[in-house]
Amino acid sequence: MTHPLPLPASDTLVHDPHGGMARLVEIMRRLRDPDTGCPWDIEQDFSTIAPYTIEEAYEVADAIARADMADLADELGDLLLQVVYHAQMGAESAAFDLDTVITGICDKMIRRHPHVFGEDSREKTAEQQTADWEAIKAAERARKGDAGPKRTLDGVAAGLPALTRAIKLQNRAARVGFDWPETDQVLDKIVEEAQELRTAENADHRFEEFGDLMFVMANLARHMDIDPEAALRAANQKFTRRFNQIEDDLNKIGKSPSQSTLAEMDALWDAAKAREKRD
């Protein structure tokens, strides 16, 4: 009677359901192995993987918005894979590895929470703790010397979603006093920008004025403590839900949206809206 040869140590780890983080790291190492790995994975670099990292973060946010905990666990796994992917590529170029990433974030969290891990008082409001966090970040940037940002708005990542970056830019400017003190002033500015958009004379001017209007809308969200990305995602979901209801109602009478008038679809929209309010 013959017995199968034992699996190599790496195979044993890959197939160990209790292997945890070490298992995931080994799977990624094997996928990137230049001789035996996956051809697609071997070809990737930081720039080609970055869009997937962003996409996975949005899918995490979507699962949270839908309150789907099973899907959230799955999407968090996909996002974790992105971290391991970048760390593996960093290790291959001897730039950094996963231990570097983990040590760095652990040190940063300890450094930025002296009220938890140090001797600072915990008797502070959330606003005071946020101010302390920003002050610590500013000190960290200053310690970087010539490599660090020099101006108020330096260091706000250009690759952020536009609305999110607008909020961060405005928060930075507000810290040095460049901000409207009252929400009503922001609302007045929205009216002004909308009128400028209305009277724009050409496509380039409309493009510019539309951007200005969106920027002020982001500022309004900041003043009202609203996440504009989350608010727009919710609006997208509401629009999708109600338009799907229009299609369902039309389907019951043998019609499609393209076979209907705007007035008919508007009436069905109002009916879907009323049903949501009753429910």
TrEMBL record:
Q: Name one GO biological process term.
A: UTP catabolic process
Alphabetical keyword list: Hydrolase
Matching Pfam families: MazG (PF03819), PRA-PH (PF01503)
Q: Which InterPro entries match?
A: MazG-like_dom, NTP-PPase_MazG-like_C, NTP-PPase_MazG-like_N, NTP_PyrPHydrolase_MazG, PRib-ATP_PPHydrolase-like
Which molecular-function annotations from GO does this UniProt entry contain? ATP diphosphatase activity
Q: What is its EC number?
A: 3.6.1.8
Q: Which reaction does it catalyse?
A: ATP + H2O = AMP + diphosphate + H(+)
Q: Which part of the chain is the NTP pyrophosphohydrolase MazG-like domain? A: 44-117
Query: What top-tier enzyme class does this entry carry?
Result: hydrolase
The Swiss-Prot or TrEMBL record describes its family as follows: Belongs to the nucleoside triphosphate pyrophosphohydrolase family.
Q: Which NCBIfam families match?
A: mazG, PRK09562.1
- Name of the protein this chain belongs to: Nucleoside triphosphate pyrophosphohydrolase
